[in-house]
Amino acid sequence: MYQALSLYINGQFLGGEGRKSQEVVNPATQDVLGYLPHASDADLEMALQSAQDAFAKWRKSSPMDRSAILRKVGQLTRDRAKDIARNMTLDQGKPLAEALGEIVSCADHCDWHAEECRRIYGRVILPRAPDVRQLVLREPIGVCVAFTPWNFPYNQAIRKICAAIGAGCTIVLKGPEDSPSAVMAIAQMFHDAGLPPGVLNVVWGEPAKVSDYLIRSPISRKVSFTGSVPVGKQLAALAGAHMKRVTMELGGHSPVLVFDDADIDRAATMLAKFKIRNAGQVCVSPTRFYVQKGSYDKFLAKFTDVLKGIKVGNGLDDGVEMGPLAHERRVPAIARFVEDARKRGAKVVLGGDPIEGKGFFFPPTVITDLQDDSMLMTEEPFGPIAPVVPFDTLDEVLARANSLPFGLSSYVFTNSLQTATKVSNGIESGMVNINHFGSALPETPFGGVKDSGIGSEGGSETFDGYLVTKFVTHV
């Protein structure tokens, strides 16, 4: 049975009675899974008001109580992971093993925030006069509004919810309408864990309308968004017009730098497997492959060979390593990158055309002989398509890697400590992975620089965007 879909406002699950709704479609089969109700203006206002009313008490709640609820949700996540994963595969498309891995790892996020929320400390500043005391307090910012994407529907929502709730804030979250089941499961688990009504509210609807309503409201004080750069800039501008704090985790175009002294077979194999994760629909997916000339042919042959063996299909079928793109509009979007590359004289060495039949499938695709100003080298593809180009020197490839306005993640393969240090110091990226993929753990900060975002989620920085600093001095 597919997850029941509803709004969740003030501790109540509200169905489609009299509300506009939309179909939720399985991207592998194009079957309709269910109908998702959209929030009316009255629903949005009720969610905001419920969050404001709940904040009056929740902000004063014991960190121990917040921690207990987060721990309970972590355990419920593990207990219900298989059912949640199956529903995620149905509406998002990723292979079942990937969906299960996403959910189980998110239990760790619950546990991390449960521990860290007990350690939100202020400080005492030594005074200049002996009869003065100076204190710094960290207090919850208030009602938060959050907007989460369809590619990692559980992971992206739970990060924001745990950080807000752990800090003592309340939250209204608009999840992804294309893949809503994971967010509904989260709402159910917090409900079952005993979270007071109004602390968490979940709404759905037309993204532009919902975001405008929630951000403009005088009730909301913090905006958190994960998604594309253009939409992030629009929401940040709107939040700025109302002097509201933002956390923005936006798109990237992650460069991969493979040097001659790297273990080429290992790098090519790892990168090929990582590239097709979630069909390439990952904000930190490797998307610009720069390979030093001495190893270029060897890397390309191994990389392409691994991708040739990837089994593409319905994420619920045995042995499938890559599922469909998440929705129909992604297929022509990826095809446009291939079309532009072909027009510019690039070579498609693998894939390149949509897979015929039911479902939104596009095969792993490798393209060579690209110029740096081509569409694929300058715009985030967000799909299973990889441009592989050669480079000569370290300084040259650093300049090319830093040439775009993006700066989310990056990947370096080298056995030289000197090279690794120079690249990690010089690359303009919020995250640098050297010889492995080590980002997105609960205890590590996740965020970008330049157009790729503002602020971080996870790590000891996780609560920074949800707290305000108050200075108190007295005699």
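That was protein one. Protein two is written in the same sequence-then-structure order:
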Amino acid sequence: MREGAGLAKAKNILFIMFDQLRWDYLSCYGHPHLHTPNIDRLAADGVRCDRAYIQSPICGSSRMSIYTGR
């Protein structure tokens, strides 16, 4: 199909999921002693979630919910 024929331009999305990493252990969220320059650079150039909710307080089931959408 030719460009501009009503198709949206594809977006580049990088979804990073950490296991056992609290949000307040990143310097982009204000930790005074831990320095995470690479994650900080990604946060500065992209989207940073300031309010997020999980499906379960147990790590495994919360990850599976994100993986499967259930």
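Residues 23-68 form one domain. Keep this in mind for the problem set.
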